[in-house]
Specification:
The complex is a heterodimer of chains A (322) and B (172). Chain A is mostly beta strands. Chain A folds into two domains: 184 residues, Lipoprotein localisation LolA/LolB/LppX (outer membrane lipoprotein receptor (LolB), chain A); 104 residues, MucB/RseB, C-terminal domain (Phosphorylase Kinase, domain 1), CATH 3.30.200.100. Chain A has three helices and 22 strands. In chain A, strands 1, 2, 3, 4, 5, 6, 7, 8, 9, 10, 11, 12 and 13 form a 13-stranded mixed β-sheet that branches. Chain A starts with a helix and ends with a strand. With 172 residues, chain B is mainly alpha-helical. Chain B folds into two domains: 125 residues, no CATH class; 35 residues, no CATH class. Chain B is built from nine helices and no strands. In chain B, helix 1 packs across helix 3. Classes of the chains: A mainly beta (322), B mainly alpha (172). The interface between A and B is large, with 84 and 56 residues.
Amino acid sequence: MTLGQALGLSVVLCAGLAQAQTPEALGWLRKIHDATHKLSYSGTFVYQSGTRSETSRITRFADAGGDIEKVEVMDGVPREIVRTRDTVRCYLPESRVVKVERQIDRAGAERGFPILLPERISALGRHYDITVGEAPRRVAGFDCRTVTLTPKDDLRYGHTLYADVKTGMLLKAETFDAKGGLVEQFSFTQLTIGGVSRDRVKTRHAAQSWRVENSDAAPANLGGWGLSSELPGFRKVAELKRRLGEAGAVGQVVYSDGLAAVSVFIEPLEGRRDPVRAGLASVGAIHIYTKEVAKHMVTVVGEAPAASVQRIANAVEFRRPQ
Amino acid sequence: MKDSISQLMDGELDDHSAAGTIKACGQGGEALETWRTYHLISDAMRDSRVLSAGFSARLAQRLEAEPTVLAPQRKRAESRTWVALSAAASFAAVALVGVVTFAPQFSTGPASIAQTPALQAQPELALQQPVMPPSAANDYLLAHQGFSPRVSFQGMAPYVRSVSDQARGPRK
């Protein structure tokens, strides 16, 4: 190989590397991220997974004082979810229950958690090839560009995001598995950007008399619980104690690769009426795997392939603190 | 083999071993017997009464009428009881294979196969047999979503994912 050929080869290699994560692609991700945080909008989207398809209405109000977002599920069991700056409330009119989740880590902004900070976007390139699609695509009347995040291994899912060319607003999101098969999809059928007033994001339920299930989440050290081996790319981003539904104190440890997150829930078996039913369940791209570890029920929940969720579950261990 | 089948039922086998074990069950013989017996034991222990009256017979009838791609072979010479048990085992096998092969493979495989009712039923079956009651599963989902960085790109839309509809089941 001559020097010229070697140089040529290295240029090709560099071009190949650069292509895996172009500044243009990262720019689009930032644009989507900013639009998600700054725009007011209202619209209707369809969630699809396998044979299941569900329509929801989403309304978001943003001004200098913060933002409020409301989602109403129109099919099946009625549900309404309202997020304010630090609280998510899930209204279930059938059972007259409000579930309240406080985003405890948002205040401790040093990790920017759980919000993905713009400067963390380029770190996604470690586990995903990020590319911009050549052809513009049209969704719900908006001209979109596509950004595809292709995982570099089979431990995570891939994603294609369709963003409005003008505003960066995300119109459609597809999740695909290692074989390229569609796992789930969110797609707007109608969207109006702007023109939202604050009263449109209020809950429509008079829920004063409903039962409130508060998560009471607080950062905690779950001394002794951990993973015997971590899943490549996933690092611990939160560790807390909380309540879950009507259950008592539950430990939650969250691992993330920057885009996908996996939660490990740990509950003592003592006082449980039913035995642990070990096994796997799934909802779209989310897998739930339950097993018993050291007289505790361990439930792993993550938007990752079943094998990844299972691998984390099988690595959960308790070591008596020395 | 007995250990593998037990592990398969508990979802503890990796992809490769699971495929081998399922194949062995599919070939009948001792493996299939073990598979049937373990499910019978597990159903009896859990006192599962999820099936409506005459379910097995109806399922057997429908299986007869359809190309059942994933079900183990049934022995025709067997008594009616065995047909019912076998149908139940097939039901379990279809559900389990749906889970073990890791969820619905929507756009893979030839369209003609994807159209068969047996395969289409998979995601539903997987949801009908969650490892926990739907309401509990939804608590975990809600608790988890707040930590997903996806919210940064997509807002609250991912929160609509919950166990509902098919998995709603009878109220206690």
